[in-house]
Amino acid sequence: MTGERGSAVLPAGRHTWLGLVAALAALVVVALAGLYADGSRPGALDRRIGAAEDAGPAWRDVALGVDFLGEPGGAALLVAAAAAGALVLRRPRAAVFVVLGPALAVLVTKLLKPLVGRTIHDGSLSFPSGHTAFLTAFALAVALLAAGRTGPGGTAGPALVLGAATAAGAAMGWAQVALGAHYPTDALGGWCTALAVTPATAWLLDRTADRLGRRPVEAPSPGRR
């Protein structure tokens, strides 16, 4: 394995199943967006899962702690720590990925919100949840890098990556619903947005970096210094 290939954020063997996951997640986002476009009330699934007011004071404090991880300050701390760790391990491409992956996932939620037009409470745009997308994308990026470094075989790699993304998305999604910031299906949309965007980001980053790494250096023309 060459140094460039060894530094890939999306190792060989993970493209197919992650591509399928990303495609299915994108379809779910589109389906939910169509179902709840321009809505301002919880859907049947939202009502079934439960409303935010069910969370007691103690659980609300926990929810606020989780929510902080999706706020600018908390998100910056998480991303800075992960990027610094990647640089210590001499993996600059990984450092770029842990910044770019979550950032693009959040950007996509910001672009989708006015297009979908779903609102909650005072008219705040709610679909999909940016907080849920951020923490899911961050966990997915870190898990992808960990799986690529340790090289778990068989189903261990996909289990690690999807398990981390699901746990992070579930935790942040619960917090957003408990705090009344989002409907459950908004959180589901944020989770799926991250699952769709983050693998695509990894693929594009690898292709761009590999292409730049293979670009030939132009030799100086005769008589030129």
Percent strand: under 5%
Mean pLDDT score: 86
Spatial strand sequence of the major β-sheet: 1-2
Low-confidence stretches: 1-6
Alpha-beta content class: mainly alpha
| Helix and strand element order | HHHHHHEEHHH
Question: How many strand units?
Answer: 2
Q: In percent, how helical is the residue content?
A: over 70%
The largest sheet, given as strand count, sense and whether it forms a barrel, is: 2 strands, antiparallel
* N-C termini distance: 37 Å
Radius of gyration: 20 Å
What is the overall number of helices? Answer: 9
Shape: globular
Structure description:
Helices cover 72% and strands 2% of the residues. The protein has 225 residues and is mainly alpha-helical. It is globular. Helix 7 (130-150) packs antiparallel against helix 8. The chain is built from 9 helices and 2 strands; from the N terminus they run H-H-H-H-H-H-E-E-H-H-H.
In a nutshell, what does this entry contain?
By secondary structure, the chain is an all-alpha fold. The protein is built from 9 helices and 2 strands. The longest helix is centred in the C-terminal third of the chain and has 31 residues, at 184-214.
Main attributes of the structure:
about 220 residues; mainly alpha; two-stranded antiparallel ribbon
What's the layout of helices and strands?
Elements: H1 3-6, H2 15-36, H3 44-49, H4 57-68, H5 72-88, H6 92-116, E1 119-120, E2 124-125, H7 130-150, H8 156-178, H9 184-214
Antiparallel strand pairs: 1-2
